[in-house]
Amino acid sequence: MAKTANKPAKAAKPLPAVADLTKAQAKVEHKRLALEIETNDRLYHQEDAPKITDAAYDALRQRFNAIEARFPEFVSAESPSQKVGAVPSGKFKKVRHALPMLSLDNAFAEEHVRDFVGRIERFLKLKDEEIAFSAEPKIDGLSMSLRYEGGELVTAATRGDGAEGEDVTANIRTLKDVPQKLKGRKVPAICEVRGEVYMTKQAFLALNERQKAEGGTIFANPRNSAAGSLRQKDSSITASRPLGFFAYAWGEMSEMPEATQTGMIHWFERCGFHTNPLTKLCRSVDELLAFHHRIEEQRAKLDYDIDGVVYKVDRIDWQQRLGFVSRTPRWGLAHKFPAERAMTVLRDIEIQVGRTGSFTPVGKLEPVGVGGVIVQNVTLHNEDYIKGIGGDGEPLREGRDIRIGDTVVVQRAGDVIPQIVDVVIDKRPKDAKEFHFPKKCPCSLHTDVVREETATGEEGARARCTGEFACPYQKIEHLKLFCSRRAFDIEGLGEKQIAYFFEQGIVKEPADIFTLAARNAKIKLEEIEGYGETSVKNLFNAIEERRRIALERFIYALGMRHVGETTALALARGYGSWQAFHDAGLKVADGDEESMADMDALDQIGDTVIKSVGAYFGESHNRGIVERLTKQVTILDAEKPKSNSAIAGKTVVFTGSLEKMTRDEAKATAERLGAKVSGSVSKKTDYVVAGPGAGSKLAEAQKHGVSVLTEDEWLRLIGE
Length: 720
Fold this sequence. Notes:
The chain is α+β, with helices and mostly antiparallel strands. The chain has five domains: 12-83 and 340-427, CATH 2.40.50.140; 94-336, DNA ligase/mRNA capping enzyme (D-amino Acid Aminotransferase, Chain A, domain 1, 2-Layer Sandwich), CATH 3.30.470; 469-546, DNA polymerase, domain 1; 550-636, 5' to 3' exonuclease, C-terminal subdomain (DNA polymerase, domain 1), CATH 1.10.150; 651-718, 3-Layer(aba) Sandwich (Rossmann fold). The protein is built from 25 helices and 26 strands. Helix 1 (23-46) packs antiparallel against helix 2, helix 17 (551-557) packs across helix 18 and helix 19 (578-589) packs across helix 21 (607-617).
């Protein structure tokens, strides 16, 4: 009799294509993917402990972006598509980048590359001119920005969250590939050289052997070893590890020594940097694709890890015209390589209660290696997903549910990552346990759990604790967000400390953090295990340093639903001061239509955020938290635009057809010059740029007495 274990496993059924998703399905998956992206951003950028490869991560974004492309109404300011990287880890002094370090959009199929080139051609409206592209391997390392003043290296900073990174200058000075002084005569007074710190495969294997012999940390892959080596407090440790650096980009430049991307690569070489010798100039889509195939064939033979190929428009003036869309430049693209799947056993399912009370089931896996990364946890999304039911009630995985003890297929790239894409029924043990979703919150109150209603009033997929602010889990999560690096960034108040202080009744709300020192005569923190006089002093100093906070960080720290850091930044820039935003929030809570219209006029702010702000300020409990907190801190006004242009700080609305530039280019230019671009007209709008076919927005401008400009008048105003 044949053994069950020897039967061939059924092939995993792929998830439905984005084009086949209903709106309800897409909305559920969009939310889930956003959570996974945020989690992986933190693991990769802050902890140097990614659970997925770069290729897998970028493939995760592929499906997420495809959903947003099909359903643009899902895009919000807090969406991962509007962000870059993650905040600095806090181990090193922070450095503000003079120009943001943004990431590239990704492509996984040849048609995506053709679409990329087609979009550039349409944007630039070229007739007979040829577009050339630089193409180079995409190094799987740690992004770095090197600032030179007068030709001398003065600062080296990691990417961080794109706006702010970590100062690792002392460690970078130990790299042989990084010149301390730039060579040549054409060296700008200010010069930021950007590139990738990496470790060769051979050096990585040798390092792990040495670490193993010495009982040190064993790194998962060369990228982790490079990041871990660079983030050492002792620069002699960095010096002992063989790190390389490839230069391929730039940040702030007081003047440009070359007019093309490839010209800059050659200039980097003349300055003393190493650049990738495989970089090539391509003059057609076919040449780009041929280069990608050739590099993929060479991938295994290279002594450094790559996860794709990068294409960039070669002419720098065209790069400047193309500008950026949110977190990515229009002129660049990363064409990624495909990834893998693996089978493992699901050992358990745990429920995590989020800051807003949402329940997220997490699968605990028998650790499995996929593409060189060890996978142990996977998000199971919601109750229906575990049961094998899709967003519209259609079967997932041919209706196969997920049980504790099942052998599952884990996908780390492609449609979704990390994701259980199928269950191998032939390997299901007799004692496999069905998972029953809890009806009560696991908190001490045991409050009811309900399924959220959709916009149509139907039962949604997400389960949520009804305890809200009474639920200890949600209170703790609010406090964790408040102290997190993107909010108040209080060193010494991590998740474990917050949980302990809350359980002991020491900190119940944010204001309590700032009264700790005054209450310590009674609390006596230095007598608590894990604390001492020095650590308590350091904690109190860290708290004192955060009594002054930027407006956007303060708004984000409040933890309003649907108000992520990008939305908080948009609100901060729109209102300028805490008092103005606070007053607007109270008026929105009272249903003041003019205040709601003013908020709606802000770029990236819509009904969902407005309702959330109104709901927050409409709750007396929240107002009390805010009132007590604002007595303890000073909230700084939002930074004003640094541009000296005539439109800096102005609010602009574009309507009708533009003939001399695309709408995207006009918006990008306005934002680059310090203006705020709005989608609707109000009495606070400064300019409406109206082209042929302008309709209701032109009428609104005339109604409110807003200055209306033709496209030519607009171009003269901005000096184009």
